[in-house]
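To assess whether ligand presence alters the predicted conformation, the chain was also submitted together with zinc ion. Input:
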Amino acid sequence: MTKPRIVHVAIPSVPFFEFFDYLAPNDCTLEQLRAGIRLEVPFGKRTKIAFLMTTSFDSHYALEKLKPILRIIDNASLLSDVDLQLLHWVSHYYHHPIGEVMSAAFPTALRQGKEAVIKKIPALRENAKTSPPIVCNPAQQHAIDHVAATWGQFGVFLLDGVTGSGKTEVYMQLIQTVLDKGQQVLVLVPEITLTPQLQARFESRFNTFIAISHSKLTDMQRKNAWLLMQSGACSLLLGTRSALFTPMPRLGLIILDEEHDSSFKQQEGFRFSARDVAIMRGKFAQTPVLLGSATPSLESLYNIRQARYHHLPLPERAGSALPPIVEIIDIRQQKLNEGLSPILLNEMRLTLNKDEQVLLFLNRRGFAPTLICNDCGWVARCVHCDANLVIHRHKSLLRCHHCGTEHRLIQTCPACQTHNLVSVGLGTERIESVLGTLFADKTVIRLDRDSTSHKGALERYLTQIHAGDAHIILGTQLLAKGHHFPNVTLVAILDVDSGLFSTDFHSGEKLAQLIVQVSGRAGREQKQGKVILQTRQPEHPLLVELLRDGYSKFAALALQERERAKLPPFSYQALLRAHSASEVLPENFLQSVAALAKTLNASNVQILGPIPAPMARRAGQYRYQLLFQHDNRNGLHHLLRQLVPKISGLNGGQKVRWSIDVDPVDLY
Ligand code: ADP
Ligand code: ZN
Ligand code: ZN
């Protein structure tokens, strides 16, 4: 009797580190059982869609316990060997169950077992309207030539150019070359909001269909984009983090714009860094990887220093655009009108009189962050979180930005019954209302998560701004990234200080990037731009260094500090987070993890904690964390490799929710 063949599968949404084993049907050939096909398998009382990873004649389980698979869904593998290699690597590196990693790699529709056929293959565009490439300046040409010298090989390049230095032009010329060779290109951006403008620029340049992939598309749209790339029918994919794993059989180039942006790191569940995984993908697929930024991450600058990445600087703005003038305004002892200083108001008037646009940045949505009683000192707090409720005046709500709890906005203090409740602090809604009074004849557009929550709202606002139908643009984070507003000549950061006092060692780097990025929105074309930073800390070293010496000097100093403190990239970290509705369980659990880790003869691993998370209670959950740090990446992973599989078995391991974050970018 022949031994039955066993298939080893990964099952999405089942947090299990090992494969599940099933019996292959007797009548199927090895050819039909390729890694990367989908199967339907029995699972408990239900059935599930599984991914075939490998086959063999052995199982850890007793043969008679194994169930046969129910159905083979695909007659050819949906993934190449390189794709599978990458997914295995990712599961291993992030210590994340392979089933969950496979989930991230497939659009929902395919995960549900829908047929892998493309609804409609788009016609190849015959666009006579495409615009020709620009004649590059020497720095751009040098960058292009350098990347082009490595076709068919792995290499990482950092295009380090100030905003408006022509990075996108470099991308487009390289993309054209790859398309001409009949190969495929993957372009990743950190935010969905950045896709429309890049898509528009690509459409006006390339005579090819552009597949778009991000999390706001419908299942069908994502499935279609995925299959268009996977089948090779389409050559150019533009997307966000979630597009990273899309199979591309003729991949020739990976571009990752705004590489410093922490949105490339997934912050929940499978916490991968799209930048780092993109680099591994380039390595496995033997293609160049081009990273671009005006404010490169300290990690990437360190990798240049270590000669792991190639540095391609674009030191000047392309065309005739001049760098903006940056001014610090000390707002201590100034009479502010809802956060706006007289100097700023004056500059705004001058700019608006010239028919130019003003952009105001404030990274806080809502009307005000705190509601306080002037009589008794009562503060509106969230009952589920260690946080204040934020006042949303338009909707007449008090809302928690951490758990979503909402209450009606009150007029009477619940503690002393007086009517002396005051709104303290500034949010975008509040600035919007004062602008409406001070600049009554001007159009103000507010761009934040609240004003753009309706589908299509952001696109409408962006169109309005570009058409010149907006005078003052006010917004949060959303504004800071990559947007190109040619007629904006004055940019102000209303409250620089909120970024200066954070306990996370990444915060200095992030604030410097934010200041430079927001400033980069000023004067992108012929007109000279001006940037105003309002602060009560005009002597803060971060601001002084950044403005005196520029971002790259600032970054060099910040790297020195990291080196002295032995922080990443001079060491490697992993953060184990645990939470539960019980106050004691997460801490006890992490204590057991720490004790276990110490028995695993992990020499030189520093184990810090457990300590409460910076927000110790959120959405009713008590949160603790344990940090592992090591001078050597392999040393850290060696410990995690032994530790992680044992964690679930620990006392309390089933009662708390825990997750592991390799290379955390946010210690929250
Ligand atoms: P970035 O991506 O670095 O912000 P872009 O590629 O968008 O820069 O270029 C900024 C502006 O300069 C665009 O309007 C672009 O068309 C123009 N530009 C780019 N390269 C050149 C060049 N070599 N000569 C003239 N203009 C250029
Ligand atoms: Zn009161
Ligand atoms: Zn809350």
